[in-house]
Specification:
The longest helix is centred in the first third of the chain and has 20 residues, at about 45-60. It is built from nine helices and eight strands. β1, α1 (about 15-25) and β2 (about 25-30) form a beta-alpha-beta unit. The protein has an eight-stranded parallel sheet with strand order 1-2-3-4-5-6-7-8. By secondary structure, the protein is an alpha/beta fold. Bound molecules: zinc ion (ZN). The site of zinc ion has 6 residues, from loops.
Length: about 280
């Protein structure tokens, strides 16, 4: 089984997680830039973070046999802090990098006017750069937030075929599907969406344009939720081909719109003299 996790925050995970993910079948992933928990107070701390998503984290992933790509953006939460807004002006120099396969995560957190502005501006940036966009739908007031998100996408220059609406659930999947966007589901350990509910959604809505991710970060989360969903699909009677479509071909098709996916990673165990980290100016 080959698995592509289309949304996982590896910055917050250990090398044990990389090993376990490889053993479970994960061969590629996309790490969206996001809120780091501690609010940032200057654009420069975003730039260092983006650079680590472009350099350090792909290097770490490759040692465990996993191809790593990222998305960059000003996230919805920090779009509300005027000190962070210069990030929007600096994004074009990151969006031209080979490893950036989308603009994201963008979308709404509390649905403020500042979030409106940042979302519209970044959908435009995606259109200008021929990149897809990863759009986070809010966890609170889900349906209202998703409808407003779809309205902003419709008013933008970006084709819905280039938009992945993420964190969907049973209440939002139908309208999200009608919008023509790709459909993302984040599977969590005890809250929001779980793998059995995901299987039920796939049974009623099919496997077209459906993407499943673990969204694992510093909170309680499980980087193997992609594999657990695949196992739940198998137990529910889905075929190997259905599983391959949802857990590999759909994310490859969506992020492939960037023209930048490189799915060959270094073999695991390809370490530098037995040391998994190149230390000191090598
Ligand atoms: Zn995320």
């Amino acid at each position: 089984m080959r698995i592509f996790d289309p949304h996982i925050h590896m910055t917050s995970r250990t090398t044990d997680d990389y090993e376990a993910m490889y053993a479970a079948g994960v061969r590629a992933l996309v790490e969206p830039s996001f809120w780091l928990g501690q609010p940032r107070t200057s654009p420069e701390s975003f730039f260092d973070y983006f650079d680590s998503l472009l350099g350090w984290e792909p290097f770490r992933a490759a040692q465990y046999g996993i191809a790593h790509h990222c998305t960059v953006a000003l996230n919805p939460k920090e779009a509300n802090d005027p000190r962070c807004l210069p990030v929007l002006d600096a994004l074009p120099r990151f969006l031209v990098k080979d490893n950036v396969v989308a603009v994201g995560e963008i979308g709404y957190d509390s649905m403020t006017p500042a979030e409106d502005t940042a979302l519209a501006a970044q959908l435009q940036l995606a259109a200008d750069h021929g990149l897809p966009a990863l759009v986070h739908t809010p966890h609170r007031d889900k349906l209202t937030g998703m409808r407003r998100t779809i309205d902003v996408v419709r008013e933008s220059a970006l084709d819905p075929e280039f938009v992945l609406l993420d964190h969907l659930n049973e209440t939002t999947v139908k309208e999200a599907a009608d919008s023509g966007c790709w459909l993302g589901f984040s599977i969590y350990p005890d809250t929001k969406m779980d793998e059995d509910r995901m299987v039920a959604v796939l049974k009623s809505h099919g496997t077209e344009k459906m993407l499943v991710n673990s969204a694992a970060d510093w909170g309680k989360s499980d980087p193997l939720k992609t594999r657990r969903t695949a196992d739940a699909m198998l137990a529910a009677g889905f075929s190997d081909d259905d599983i391959d479509q949802v857990l590999w071909r759909n994310p490859v098709a969506f992020y492939g719109r960037s023209g930048r996916l490189q799915l060959d990673a270094a073999a695991p165990g390809d370490l530098h003299e037995g040391n998994s980290i190149l230390r000191g100016g090598e």
